[in-house]
Design goal:
- By secondary structure, the protein is of the alpha/beta class.
- Helices cover about 35% and strands about 15% of the residues.
- It has two domains: about 10-185 and about 335-350, 3-Layer(aba) Sandwich (Rossmann fold), CATH 3.40.50; about 195-330, Glycogen Phosphorylase B (Rossmann fold).
- It contains twelve helices and 13 strands.
- Helix 10 (about 290-300) links the parallel strand 12 (about 280) and strand 13 (about 305).
- Helix 1 (about 25-40) packs across helix 12 (about 340-350).
- The protein starts with 11 loop residues before the first strand and ends with a helix.
- The chain binds uridine-diphosphate-N-acetylglucosamine.
């Protein structure tokens, strides 16, 4: 059964999408969906994970999307963990719901960006004859994206280093694009110098504590900290530290800050590169297969900043590096959004 082909006319598209749980998967998807919407009339069916970030943000930024919530959980490591039996059964049990929604929505294609919700959506799409496109943000691809790559029309990767992590037979369908960046108009007004500290969409207790120490030691510098909801001792906050639970308009901050201290999630790294932000990146050591360390090395190669491993990130060392970056200054610039290249390629493939 083929649902997608000729489902829409040349000026409109129906897109089913999945990818979220964390901002690192969600924002690149929004960037691509918004690039489509800038060119054509689009309707979007978004598969969300119950209770996760996409359920909170999509109703705010895209109330027009049709949303379907799935009750799924990621698989635990190691893969033969006994609790995974239930988790796999739960993923499988969603197949009927996903298929029913795809059948009534009749998408032209499915666009997924990884995370454990992407696989069942991509698989159901494939079984219904809907073309699948997948985007991988990290240098080391997630297991579900590798599985999806076997039947995806195109596999969009951010970094050349990813290619060898995919099976040889799919490599002719890989396109290196960079990570799509979610941007809108706007820039916040900040005093200079301001340093943004952000531990990814879920925050980082380590960076929260570091922010507090740095702000106390460096009264001549302003700090903005996104805690991502992680705990922080707010009893004695220095005046030069502004604390936010979550920042909804990161693009406006990236355009304004002098420097940043971040984890090394692939989307954050790509945003630093896109907005040319000097930064110290401290990878989260718990990331699957150490992928944040590899992301951080790629960032270092750009010459924009430095990776410091968490075990080495004393306040003294970070302060020293930060002063060095601030002294060096920032060139305010923006690159072309990789979302454009992805949309060009998908339109080319589906119009064949
Ligand atoms: C714990 C976990 O699963 N981490 C992964 C997840 O991280 P995580 O979701 O933290 O991913 P990233 O750090 O790459 O991206 C975070 C995104 O959230 C945004 N943001 C962050 C804070 C805030 O207050 N407001 C805001 O909008 C950032 O601008 C960025 O767009 O996805 C990344 C991309 O696949 C992976 O590399 C990470 O290893």
């Amino acid at each position: 059964m083929i649902l997608g082909s000729n489902a829409s006319d040349a000026t409109s598209l129906r897109i089913s999408a999945a990818g979220g749980v964390t901002g690192g998967h969600l924002y690149p998807n929004l960037a691509v969906l918004e690039e489509f919407a800038g060119r054509l009339n689009t309707e979007v069916l978004y598969f969300c994970v119950e209770g996760k970030l996409e359920e909170k943000l999509l109703p705010v930024f895209h109330p027009e999307y049709k949303r379907v919530s799935l009750r799924v959980q990621g698989l635990l490591r190691p893969i033969y963990h006994p609790a995974n039996v239930i988790r796999i059964l739960r993923i499988i049990s969603n197949e009927g719901k996903i298929k029913a929604n795809l059948k009534s929505f009749r998408p032209d294609f499915s666009y997924v960006s990884g995370g454990y919700v992407s696989y069942p959506v991509a698989l159901a799409s494939k079984r219904l004859g809907v073309p699948v496109f997948v985007q991988e943000q990290n240098t080391i691809p997630g297991k579900s994206n590798v599985a999806i790559s076997r039947f995806a029309e195109r596999i969009f990767v951010a970094f050349e280093e990813s290619i060898t992590h995919f099976p040889p037979e799919v490599r002719n369908r890989i396109v290196i694009t960079g990570n799509p960046i979610w941007v809108r108009e706007g820039k916040v007004e900040l005093a200079h110098p301001t340093v943004l500290i952000v531990g990814g969409s879920g925050g980082s207790e380590f960076l929260n504590a570091l922010a507090l120490e740095l702000a106390k030691r460096m009264p001549d510098v302003n700090f903005v900290l996104s805690t991502g909801g992680k705990s922080l001792d707010t009893a004695d906050l220095p005046k030069n530290l502004e604390v936010k639970n979550y920042i909804d308009n990161m693009f406006a901050y990236w355009r304004a800050v002098d420097c940043a201290i971040t984890r090394a999630g692939a989307t954050t790294i790509s945003e630093l590169i896109h907005f040319n932000v000097p930064a110290i990146v401290i990878p989260w050591e718990g990331a699957t297969e150490g992928h944040q360390v590899i992301n951080a090395k790629i960032f270092e190669k750009t010459g924009l900043g430095k990776m410091i491993r968490e075990s080495d990130a004393s306040v003294d060392k970070v302060e020293w590096e930060l002063r060095h970056l601030l002294l060096h200054g920032r060139v305010f610039s923006e690159r072309e959004n990789p979302a454009k290249k992805i949309v060009d390629e998908i339109l080319r493939v589906i119009s064949r």
